[in-house]
Task: structure prediction
Amino acid sequence: MKRSFLLSLMLALFLSLLLSTQSSVQAAPTSTQPVGGDWRLANGHFYSQTSPAGAGFAVVDDDEAKFWSEFQRLGALQTVGYPISRRFSYEGFVTQAFQKLILQWRPEAGHAWAINVFDELNKAGLDGQLFSYRQTPYHWSQSDGSQNLEAAAAIRQSWLDANPAIRARYFSVADPVTTFGLPTSQVEDMGNHYAIRTQRAVFQQWKEAVPWAAAGEVTLANGGDIAKEFAWFVGDYLTPEDPANYPVYSPPAPPGNPTINEAKWIDVDISEQRIRAYAGNQVVYTALVSTGREPNPTVIGQYRIWIKLRYDDMEGGSKEKGDYYYLEDVPYVMYFYQGYGIHGTYWHNNFGTPMSHGCVNLTIADAAWFYNWAEVGTLVNTHY
Result:
């Protein structure tokens, strides 16, 4: 990526300071306590963010269902949200509710599908309450005039054209119909925001800043939370689980790097397409990433974060070769070697697959966590 002269100068100053100090860093004692309200499991992750203190919900892969893999594939916290239930059976399928989507394991497909929760709320006669209390547009009950499913999809997706920002967010995932369903309303002016309802989600673009979003930002309404609030699903499975049943999992040290002795450091495993935050030798956070795709692989080695930028514009590629790009306001950027950085990503959702021009792409939520946790000087270890 092309970087400015100012960034190059700052890199030189940082390297000079690093070489002059030569200060040793002592390893932090191994922690047996989770950090940040969630922690890694051998086959998934445990989250306590939506539960009272001392409780939470596990998202795991097992022989019954692979919700942890599907949670990550569908966009993790940014698109799915934190878990709000244990597993339960709905219409004969294993199901788990999350803040934004309610996922149902479909063994015939080998994937989880999001339930058409807003269609179900419409069938339950709750549209009036949704409109009054959650500013959700009414379900469009008129015919769209289509003659087949393909035509219906084209017509309904054309309703998104009324709001380019919402349209971009809808199409930001690999398969928007599977993730969000088709629009079931037009874009509506709801006062302080615009909204459109789909079968599985509600998109909102805010006209003004609110505590959870900046002016102009597009968010997803918490469809799972709304369904829970309106008692669409009730049962013992809403009772949080005991975290004592889900001990913290500490994987072996990364291959070929058994001697890293840092208080905190970041490991990027390109083979796994996974990033891990370590406190000493304890994993405190992990997420899927997208590293560099040929012919622009991510650099291999040990580096240190030399600058952190809340937002940065990024440019690279070649107009002649047809791979030129210019990205404005890339969030939560941490450069660790020249123009190679760890940062949030709003232009794709294909984490777990190499996609970048060399940087380490994360979801915006995961990038924010690393940005707030790491410091200038934090070691970044990249390897296969």
Observations:
- The radius of gyration is 22 Å.
- The CA atoms of residues 268 and 275 lie 4 Å apart.
- Residues 137-220 form one domain.
- DSSP finds ten helices and 20 strands in the chain.
